[in-house]
Amino acid sequence: MNRYAVVLFAALLAGGACAEDVATAEAVASKPRPVIHRGEIGQTPVEVAFRYLKDHVADERGIASYQQLAIQQQAKGDDFQHVKLDVEMKGLKDDAMASQRFKFTLSFEGKAWVVDSVSQDWKCRRGGKGWTQKPCK
Fold first, then answer.
1. Which of 39, 85, 107, 136 is least crowded, fewest Cβ atoms below 10 Å from its Cβ?
2. Percent of the chain having pLDDT more than 90?
């Protein structure tokens, strides 16, 4: 039982919970969270993000439709098992979009990196100066 389940179990017992409540609490605590993408053993966070992005980074021949690719990885303090990763494609062929960016949060679980969250945003050539959650027109 994980720490959350133990704390929940203790709280339920202290409140006079019945066996059904305890069983429900254990089931909720042990339910695995959904995984967006799991890397393979030995892959770095950048490799995991690239594998997840596959068709966004290049076509089936490996040719990209952008001029510059910028990748930034950052750990929070001394916690090197949780990182944020930005992948930005600049100089896109698309007339409406100047740049496209993917923002990842990853954590090291077990023996591999796991994508916890990913978001996509765009920088338009016309009309806006910042990043937008809506594709450019």
1. 107
2. 56
